[in-house]
Specification:
This protein is of the alpha/beta class. The chain has 20 helices and 16 strands. The chain folds into two domains: about 200 residues, Rossmann fold (3-Layer(aba) Sandwich), CATH 3.40.50.720; about 280 residues, 3-Layer(aba) Sandwich (Rossmann fold). The longest helix is centred in the middle third of the chain and has 32 residues. The radius of gyration is 24 Å and the shape is elongated. The C terminus is likely disordered. Bound molecules: uridine-5'-diphosphate-xylopyranose.
Length: about 475
Amino acid sequence: MRLTVIGTGYLGAVHAACMADIGHDVLGVDVDAEKIRALAAGRPPFFEPGLDEVLARNVANGRLRFTTSLREAAVHADLHFVCVGTPQRPDSTAADLRHVDAVLDGLAPHLRDGSLIVGKSTVPVGTTDRLTARLAGLVAAGTTVEVAWNPEFLREGFAVQDTLRPDRLVAGVTSAYADAALRSVYAPMLAAHVPYISTDPATAELVKVAANSFLATKISFINAMAEVCDATGADVVTLADAIGHDTRIGRRFLSAGLGFGGGCLPKDIRAFTARADELGVGHAVSFLREVDEINLRQRRRAVAIARDLAGGELAGRRIAVLGATFKPDSDDVRDSPALAVAAAIHRAGAEVRVHDPEGTDNARAALPGPLYGTEVTDVCRDADVVLHLTEWAQYRALDPAALAAVVRAPRLLDARNALDADRWVAAGWDVRALGRPVPAPVPGLLPGSRLTIPQSVPADWTAPIEADVLSRAPK
Ligand code: UDX
């Protein structure tokens, strides 16, 4: 099928490449000419495992082309996927729909009768109806155009696999024609028995924000438990393992630590809260404010523990930060908990040195203050404290004894509960975590045996930190 994908960020670039890969004739569109040049040359403008191959293959075979012209898009196809960003508004927690509106406004005068516009971006419930009404006033007289919503659930780091083999497809449509068109687009997935849920646009829009709200709630639930664990000497990792064995609960998304970030979860729960307020049902999702607050609190707790490890004062201390991206296997630093902590510590006067396997360019652009290094050893040299903030596999493979030899003092905060604390303790490190007792070596006991001491989280951890401002700023 001939189709266009408008907006070639994380979502659109992956969608365009994957749609070409399953046989469609795809034109990708973006206002960013530099991005379009890179994509047309088969180069992804961001780090996403596997995307380079799919992109290069389909640019080479001619099924995937790119342009900056919406007029060209309307000439190429009658089916247009809209994948532009819907960031948080600068002046409120609501979603900023200016890019979606701009696409519709630019496309409308060129659309042919019977065109179908399929939104994939995450939007407030009611957007499909609003856009349908808006388009009616913009298209040529006698032209009928339909809008449908087909939310995307891809995870960064797994974007290609999530697009080619999704858990489910959701189509919010108002006609049998739109439903049939989407079934044709996704025919290979349907043949592979991917569940396809055909529903009204409002339900489809809500599925996406409800799914992300649930995931965010699950993470904040376990982080709330981590706070209770810290007050009692209990271990949140064992707690998560134990409750996760209950198949009704499940272990996934129960990893306690620095909390969630990225371009979706934080902004989506805030936009949902704002939209629910507009609809007069704010009370129904008021718990999402608490979910957000628990999440931001983990960053403050990490800063407080770092200060404690540094001897009560961050100013003048050298702090090594391992990880800048919002999660591993991504170069994305949008609303990154790791970068928010690095920013707060930098503002408190520490000399911050940051390492990240893929995200340093983006991190430096978002937070120019700290020094960025390409080698863990250089970043950790003479450090007073090491903070493990994003759980890249490379950090799990570090040799704690070798690293102890380069730092000024072997003190570690594992804010992702991902390192083997016993190994680090055995190599002489003072190890702290979020929601786990502090392990201390026990002389005379078997290797691996340890005495555990409840963590004392310093009293000032509830004080707001400036990093919250950073965390809320759209990229
Ligand atoms: C998320 C949704 O998973 C995806 O379905 C949606 O389309 C977009 O938003 P993504 O932003 O790529 O995807 O990240 P995800 O893997 O969901 O992780 C989100 C954040 O939660 C990360 O910062 C991660 O570190 C954190 N997280 C995740 C935890 O803190 N604990 C967990 O147990 C899981």
